[in-house]
UniProtKB/TrEMBL annotation:
Designated name of the protein: Uncharacterized protein
UniProt-listed InterPro entries: NA-bd_OB-fold (IPR012340)
Region annotation Disordered: where it falls in the sequence: 408-459
Biased segments, Low complexity type: 424-436
Compositional bias ranges of the Basic and acidic residues kind: 408-418, 439-459
Organism: Deinandra increscens subsp. villosa
Length: 459
């Protein structure tokens, strides 16, 4: 058998050397909705170095004969520069597997079946690209502080968890679509996980991590070569923070505050933090419109034309998304505060889809509230929301006021194939501008805005 080289010997545009490798991952990446899905392999050589292999779309028959975790002698490939965006490994080359390339099956070699290049929390800021074009994806070794089941937001399935590494700094990770379903029944509090190929993003200025189609998760003792790190991480707890989004019902109930206490704080120190309080819906502003009708493609507002709705931007007829956007005031015995209920939060409260109310039950006047909304006025709930000093706080979750803690239920989800397309997070829908003379459904006069109250207090 011919002598094999190393991944580190490869130079772009120069002749390749035969490589003895193990195939440790297969994944597909779609850079944009208009691009075709591209198949990649992650290969590891005898020296423990990894490289991405881009597989020609014409080689579907070859792919059916190349198996995960098997060893091969790879010849006849082409050496190119690394991918400009979305690289799984920090390597100076990418292998192109075309028609001349061949995978020759060989005997088992002492090559690892996992490959990680873990990044510490302190490096994540430097990996963030505000353009959204992530150059190098991130591997993260962390401990789960809390984890959700799979849920749907804006018609996208997701799972959220809050994790921390040896820095003890908590950070939220979102698993999208098939990645969420694949690992949902394996994730639990206190587990240490090795999670690969994450994208560093920001939401409201706070660092977050998101899955990509190349993401894999390995749990606890199944992580090869990191036993000491796992042991030390298991002994740690996360630093306290109110920044991070997903919280269990127990977390929310055990961290209640009052509206007055929130408004008494310096807005700069609590901006974009999350709080929970027991309060009542005091009033609902109907003239600020209680639902929106948006185009599914450009997300701009649809407008009426004849008997139907059309988008002013899209030439092809598009389906509309009908969603709640309810501006209200909540109050407790300390103060009151304006809030906005977007679609997921209001659907949770009413237990009825907005489209059903508007289309099926024909409550289609934007400024006339349906009875289901009017009945909310005066009801006491536990509201979990993001506080914003410059915008109206948005309700994230609503619970009934009872204090019997319910155990978290694990979702029984069948193991599915890893996702084949990359999904990025969608931003929160813009708020409806305030009307100069809003029609209110209330029992009391409205109070001042939280921003004005805090300004008066500071003066």
């Amino acid at each position: 058998m011919m002598a094999a080289g190393k991944v580190t010997d490869l130079v772009p545009y120069e002749a390749p050397v035969p490589l003895k490798v193990r195939v440790i991952r297969k994944y597909c990446i779609q850079w944009s909705p208009t691009d075709k899905s591209q198949l990649f392999y992650l290969l590891v050589d005898e020296s423990g170095n990894a490289v991405e292999a881009k597989i020609s779309p014409r080689l579907k028959k070859v792919d059916n004969k190349v198996f995960l975790y098997k060893c091969y002698l790879l010849t006849g490939y082409v050496v190119d520069p690394p991918q400009k965006i979305g690289r799984v490994v920090d390597q100076a080359v990418t292998i192109i597997v075309g028609d001349r390339a061949e995978f020759h099956a060989i005997d088992e070699l002492p090559i690892q079946k996992q490959f990680y290049s873990f990044a510490p929390y302190s490096s994540l800021e430097g990996r963030y690209n505000p353009t959204g074009k992530t150059v190098l994806l991130t591997d993260y070794l962390c401990k789960i502080q809390r984890v959700s089941t799979v849920f749907q937001r804006s018609n996208i399935n997701m799972l959220k968890m809050v994790v921390f590494d040896h820095s003890r700094e908590p950070i939220e990770i979102t698993l999208w679509e098939k990645i969420a379903f694949t690992y949902a029944n394996l994730l639990a509090r206190e587990k240490v996980i090795a999670i690969s190929s994450l994208k560093v993003t920001k939401y409201l200025g706070t660092l977050q991590l998101e899955s990509t189609s190349a993401t894999t998760i390995v749990i606890d003792l199944a992580i090869e070569g990191y036993s000491e790190e796992i042991k030390s991480l298991k002994a740690l707890t996360a630093r306290a923070s109110s920044h991070y989004g997903y919280q269990t019902e127990d977390d929310i109930r055990n961290n209640l505050t009052t509206i007055g206490d929130i408004l008494s704080k310096n807005p700069e120190t609590i901006n974009n933090h999350r709080f929970s309080c027991i309060a009542k819906v005091k009033e609902i502003f109907a003239n600020r419109k209680w639902f929106s009708r948006k185009c599914t493609v450009c997300l701009d507002n649809m407008r009426r034309e004849g008997v139907g709705m059309v988008c002013k931007n899209c030439t092809v007829a598009q389906e509309e998304v009908i969603a709640y956007c309810v501006n209200a005031t909540i109050c407790d015995n300390t103060a009151s505060m304006p809030v906005v209920f977007f679609n997921e939060a209001m659907t949770q409260v009413l237990r009825v889809d907005c489209r059903k109310l508007v289309i099926d039950e024909e409550y289609n006047d934007l400024v006339v509230l349906p009875p289901q909304l009017i009945e909310l006025i005066g009801q006491e709930k536990i509201f979990h929301f993001i506080f914003k000093s410059t915008e109206t706080p948005s309700i994230q979750q609503t619970l009934d006021v009872h204090f019997t803690a319910q155990p978290e239920k694990e979702t029984e989800i069948s193991h599915e194939e890893v996702a084949v397309s990359d999904i990025t997070s969608s931003s929160t829908a813009p708020q409806t501008p305030a009307s100069k003379a809003p029609r209110r459904y209330d029992r009391q006069e409205p109070d001042e805005s939280p921003a004005k109250k805090m300004k008066d207090k500071q003066e």
